[in-house]
Amino acid sequence: MLRAGIVGLPNVGKSTLFNAITRTRKAEAANYPFCTIDPNVGVVNVPDARLAHLQKIAKTGVVIPAAIEFVDIAGLVKGASQGEGLGNKFLTHIREVDAIVQVVRCFEDADVHHVSGTVDPVRDIEVINTELMLADLETVRKRRERVSKDLKRGDKAAAVEEAVLARLEASLDAGKPAMTVTLTPEEKAVAASFFLLTDKPTIFACNVAETDLATADANPYVRAVRDYVTAHLACEAVVISAQIESDLVDLAPDEADAFLKDLGVQESGIGALIRATYHLLGLRTYFTAGERKLKTKKKESI
Q: pTM for this structure?
């Protein structure tokens, strides 16, 4: 099963979001850094309104939706690539996932500590990405050292690998993540073997306050994140309120709908985030149905 890792600075709402996505209280959410040390893991069904209609057509009482795995990874801090805040351990956890959901704090709250002292989501994104790029730069340089030996022997595969590594190193050295490097399909296949952190598909989750969810488009922090990730990373940003989503976990569906309507919101942001992450992983859905069950299968897009 493909895995999406929830990452970000400490105290931005990662564990609260994980609990909301998985509809559990598995991850401890507290107002201090490194509340999470070991990753929390949960399997999540992908919301799909088509299933209810297809269930009626298939006349089955069993429905098996598509599912993905979410991993709540401890907060990274400046210097993580050099081991700060157990950074090396946490970077290893990120390396093991297939995609990244980077949670960014887009709300003010004097009662919720920010590791940098102020709220600045673009700065926070750059802190995280810088640490990931520094870790990747070390990986690329070590790889080039190993490849150089084969290159001297005239190995053609090594020559191709060296060319890709050289372009990646130049980009990372210039402060640009690996995902921004334009590669041919063949070169992408070579780059995939490096397992670079900044080459992983990434989506940004703008975590807003309860009172801002209905008017998130007017939130200056959200606008700043959207403009930045679109211009510099060609990534998508979605809006969620981790605290609201966490509160909804304990409510019945009709109570949750009423709660959202009172806030001026028609739909929870969690479903949209899960669906966006599902597609981010390169998956598409097709359905199979029989007399006994309707099953959603995943297939990687080409």
A: 0.84
